[in-house]
Amino acid sequence: MTRASLKANQIAVKIVGEKGVSKLTNGFRKLANNKTPVWLPETPQANNHKLEESLETLVKSDRKVVYVPSCASRTMGQQSNASDQRSLTEVTLSLIKKAGYEVIIPSRIHDQCCGMPYDSKGMTDIATQKATQLEQSLWEASYEGEYPILMDTSPCAKRSIENFTRPLEILEPTGFASKYLVPHLDITPTDETVMLHVTCSSRKMGLENTMLKLAEQCSSNVVVPEHIACCGWAGDKGFTTPDLNAAAVEPLKEQVPEGCTRGFSNSRTCEIGLSHHSGIAYQSILYLVDEVSNPL
Question: What is this structure's pTM?
Answer without folding.
Answer: 0.93
